[in-house]
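Table S2 (text version). Query chain:
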Amino acid sequence: MFQTKKICHKDTKAQRKYNTLLGVFVSQWRDLVAAVGLHWHKVVRPINPVTPQEMNIWILTVRSHRYHPNRRLLEAAGGLRQKASLIHPGKIHLIVNGHRLGMGGRFFKRSPDLLIPRLGATIKEYGLTAIRHFQLMGAAMMNRFEPILLASNKFLSLQTLAAAGIPVPETSYASNPSNFETALSGMGGFPIVIKIASSRQGSGVFLFDTLEKAGPILEDQLNKGHGLLMQRYIPPEGRADFRVLVGGGEILGAMSLKPKKGEFRSNIHLGASAQAVACSEEMASLALRSAGALGLDIAGVDLVQDKHKVLRVMEVNSTPGFKGLEKCTGKDIAGAIIRCAMKMKG
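Corresponding structure-token output:
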């Protein structure tokens, strides 16, 4: 055993003695290793190893880490050596003061390099306001305020898609009982699918075959000044439903969806079955064009194909879930999303 004492680096004589003793020790250790039949490997470590620059990613959400998309995004970020945190909009408050914008609350001492809004169906006025606030403060955004606002309203998004020349289903938007009946007549009457403009995951989507059955939803929504979307009903037997996930201008994955027996809505949350599919050239083009028309960096694009094999864009989601897509495709969708975020930040 070699015993050493603390060496002052200014004492060069003592330093030389220490280096000599250390050299003898290393030489003797090598001889010992060779004697027992092992091999000495010199390990060279780069002084500045090249690793991806760590980002501070905020995921704006009201859900916990147990919620699948949140859990998977946190896992993927860690695997890619990025720092990700779940930020509840209720834990911060927004500040404007003079010509400056700021925030306070639990997280006010930190600021994100990139914000991923994931409020989805839970998005409210405050959530939208917070997203715009971060955007105006200069944070990089994976989906900015304006595209999220468009996508949060089904008719606003269909307006935008149709104006961009993207095929969408025939849709009427009624604001009161009188023009509802007029629009219904123009669409050929019942059965009809009625949608609340801000609904998600199949909630707020109804199929009616008589005016009497539709009465309660009409009274609840139209008399409150809310508009309702109306679309012609296509039975599940006469259509094919697809979900295509777009991220960073690329197709991240695609699946076909089949409603469960007795259900007309093809949402995973409502029991629909999913199967991985190869994205056709037409499907990919419609999905990419739809995300681009709305200005979304990441989007879940829902397509419907009728019995004549005509594809139309039914809906575009700015906060797509991907549990079903990961399960049926076996792809690391969460990792693909984080890599998109890293590319955005550069």
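Notes on Table S2: The CA atoms of residues 234 and 306 lie 8 Å apart. Residues 12-35 form the longest helix (24 residues).
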